Amino acid sequence: MTKLKVAVIGCGSIAQHRHLPEYASNKNVQLVAVCDIVEARANEVAEKYGVKAFTDYKELVKSGEIDAVSVCSPNYLHAPISIEALSNGLHVLCEKPMATSQEEAEAMIQAAEKSGKKLMIAHNQRFVRSHQIARKLIENGEVGKIYSFRTAFGHPGPEGWSVDGKNSWFFEKDKAFIGAMGDLGVHKTDLLRYLLGEEIVEVGAFVETSSKEFADVDDTAVCVLKTESGTIGTLAASWSFTASEDNSTIIYGEKATLRLEDNPTYSLVAQYTNGEVVNYELGKIQSNDNGGQKNTHVIEEFVGAIVEDRDVPISGTEGMKSLAVILAALKSNDTKTIVRV
């Protein structure tokens, strides 16, 4: 079988920690090129993987040398690069948040439809074992009616993990468009939609900068969310959890409470109203901390969808629905009103 020829655009931390090593270890993939606006970085990564280096993404996507790309650029370039790649007949895996506006997201989806190529958004929380099992428990009625939920994603901030530290694009509004809410919050809006099997329809949010004085984006956000069936819960996203990472979700149901990634030993704890407790030991969630799972399953799902010509698990439309919640949260904070998604 001929291998899928892949390039990675943007050689920052997410590319170096996730996309590149996962492509390199995938038997169906031939890594062909990398691209970064910083020439020295592009060359260094290219040398490490024995591939070609580019500094201009347009030149790369028009080169005729590749079948698919990962878009790991700053957020404001997600849509332009993805659209350019799709328009040149390439499959696209785009990091989250997929775009900086509804219009951009729609343009990406249209470009994918027009080209007949696959567009997948890298929402990796759907591939975490505890989240998948919890979804099944909710789906098959074991939890009963969902009464409420709370989810949090927080860590000390990108300066500890971005290749550029405090000078990272993550902290610049014109490049990131949104801070912790876009970096972490969008993961959790996607997770809640996946777990609950329904859409979030109303958002009330406070979005602030409390710990990163040098940043011109938010570093802490707390949202109240309401689903289409009327369930309410909270979402917190923060770069100000300075001691350790929190990546937990709790679902409060009629028959059980599910605690996901809330216990250091058990990835999922199901506490039933009859007193029974089931502990699931599933290994640590993907994380930048030591011991976190190294394989996010995003790359294998993307490659598998292309090779087997099946639908990607997280389409552009799914990415847009998760983005819409974040955009509503920003609007809620700006207008001091509850916003319909």
From TrEMBL:
Lineage: superkingdom: Bacteria
Gene3D superfamilies, sorted: Dihydrodipicolinate Reductase, domain 2, NAD(P)-binding Rossmann-like Domain
Pfam families from the UniProt entry: GFO_IDH_MocA, GFO_IDH_MocA_C3
Location of the GFO/IDH/MocA-like oxidoreductase domain: 132-259
Domain Gfo/Idh/MocA-like oxidoreductase N-terminal: 4-123
Protein name (database record): Gfo/Idh/MocA family protein
Species this chain originates from: Metabacillus herbersteinensis
